[in-house]
Amino acid sequence: MELESILLPGISEQRPVVIAGPCSAETEEQVMTTARELANKGIQIYRAGIWKPRTKPGGFEGIGTEGLAWLQRVKKETGMYVATEVATKSHVEEAVKHHIDILWIGARTSVNPFAVQEIADALKATGFDGPVLIKNPVNPDLELWIGAIERIYNAGIKKIGAIHRGFSTYDKKLYRNLPQWHIPIELKRRIPTLPLFSDPSHIGGKRELVAPLSQQAMDLNYDGLIIESHCRPDSAWSDKDQQVTPDILSYILNTLVIRDTHQTTENLTELRQQIDEIDNELLSILAKRMRISKEIGQYKKEHNMPVLQTVRYDEILGKRISEAEKMGMGNSFMKTVLEAIHEESIRQQIEVINQ
Ligand code: PEP
Ligand code: MN
Predict the structure, then answer these.
(1) How far is CA 225 from the centre of its chain?
(2) With CB atoms counted within 10 Å of each terminal CB, which end of the chain scores lower, N or C?
(3) Which ligand neighbours the alpha carbon of 20 most closely?
(4) CATH architecture of the region 17-255
(5) CA–CA distances in Å: residue 249 to residues 15, 216, 272, 338, 354
(6) Which atom of ligand 1 is nearest to the CA of 24?
(7) Ligand 1 atom with the shortest distance to the CA of 109
């Protein structure tokens, strides 16, 4: 995939790229108040759901097209870029008509290839060129996630990002959606140029988890965060337990520890050199052990003794494994190493005997 940067003009290149705003646009006042507070905290991209995919009917299903005008006002008055979720062809058409800058595909949509294809076709027809962010599907299926990304890419969009929002689970314990970190990590390995966002609000489902989950994402080298923030979280019309005020959000962002990827590799050079030296020592010690083993082979040959002496081997294995354990190494590790060494010793002794 030949992707282009999702950093629209003026967006800071510093990690993390932050998208923040309410789960849903509720009223013009709530949208504007939250936006002003976030802009004052330096947030550059504002999110708000206009069409809300709710699990059951009867809940607040989003304000609809009317709210797009509020987002346009946010853009005009605060200078922030605006982002919203699209799930159908008409959502795409309306969003593009109202100059929404960034679109995302929700978890309940990326699960459905027909829906994603409909969105991809609509994007192509409108000429929208991104960024488009694709949330992981609700079920832990990496191929389905990649499939959704490919459908959008095939529509000619090169500014693409992925959002990790966790995976549905029957038993809700600590998390609302299980992170299953290995899935986004594998996604990053498969498409290394794809910017990866974490959505700690939907993974955690509660305010207290936003900070630790954001830190975890930063430690795993994610590029960005999408966090739900509301001027009055307790009275939010959707996802109230997981939204934080712009003040709290700013505090969370300021306390994140961002490890510098370049710096760490530089500091590692010295340690890596030491590893290289130790590996060389290991090699010469192993070669020395093999030489002695061959001498034993020679002795066995001269005295007509069998090569394999299991009692001695068992003794060695038991002793070394317990010594290794005392030094903090797992016993199966030491067993594997010794077995491999022993196998090579035997092979070399047989060579000597047959000479
Ligand atoms: C949202 O971002 O508000 C949302 C509905 O998220 P998800 O698709 O991850 O459930
Ligand atoms: Mn939400």
Answers:
(1) 11
(2) C
(3) 1
(4) Alpha-Beta Barrel (3.20)
(5) 16, 16, 38, 53, 74
(6) 3
(7) 8
Q: How far is the CA of 307 from the centre of ligand 1 (A)?
A: 67
Report d(CA 334, CA 317) in Å as an integer: 9
Mean pLDDT by 10 residues, the chain (355 residues): 95 96 98 98 98 89 97 98 98 98 98 98 96 98 98 98 96 90 94 97 98 96 97 97 98 93 67 84 92 91 84 86 90 88 90 87
Which is it for the CA torsion 91, 95, 100, 101, positive or negative? positive
Q: DSSP class of residue 178?
A: B
DSSP-derived secondary structure for 123-168:
HHHHT----EEEEPPSS--HHHHHHHHHHHHHTT---EEEEE--B-
pTM of the full structure = 0.76
Contact 210, 242 (CB under 8 A): yes
At residue 185, the 3 state secondary structure works out as helix
Helix (H, G, I), strand (E, B) or coil at 226: strand
Domain ranges of the chain: 17-255, 266-353
Q: In b/e form, how buried is each residue of 154-190, taking b as 16+ CB within 10 angstroms?
A: ebebbbbbbbbbbbbeeeeeebbbbbbeebbeebbee
Pairing of strands 196-198, 102-105: unpaired
Q: Which residues line ligand 1 at a C-beta cut-off of 6 Å? A: 23, 49, 53, 106-108, 135, 165, 202
Which fold does the domain 266-353 belong to in CATH?
Answer: Chorismate Mutase Domain, subunit A (1.20.59)
> Helix (H, G, I), strand (E, B), or coil: what is residue 75?
helix
Chain CA centroid to CA 148, Å: 17
What's the pLDDT at 268? 75
In DSSP terms, which residues pair with 95 in a beta bridge?
A: none
Residue 184 dihedral angles phi and psi, to the nearest 5° = -65, -30
How many angstroms is it from 107 CA to the middle of ligand 1? 6
pLDDT computed for residue 244 by the predictor: 98
Predicted pLDDT at 263? 62
